[in-house]
Design a protein that fits this description.
80 residues; mainly alpha; 5 helices; globular
Length: 80
Amino acid sequence: MFLTDVESHEAAEPFASAFSGMRAGGIPIPQILHLFAFKPERTRHLSVFTQDVMRGPSPLPPWQRELIAAFTSKLNQCLF
């Protein structure tokens, strides 16, 4: 990550438990989660919006929405 202060920031709950579980499982922590944990009061609305878009009512099931997001990220040369 380019923002070392963000990535090394000691996350509070619920991020702390999630990060600990990911580290224990050898799963890399998505960089966007480091940003959400750094300033949760400023990113909460984005998290709620994202969950609603990906999991809320829609003619597309969540797995298709995830696939579209992953494909779009790949086209943009962005790690998903």
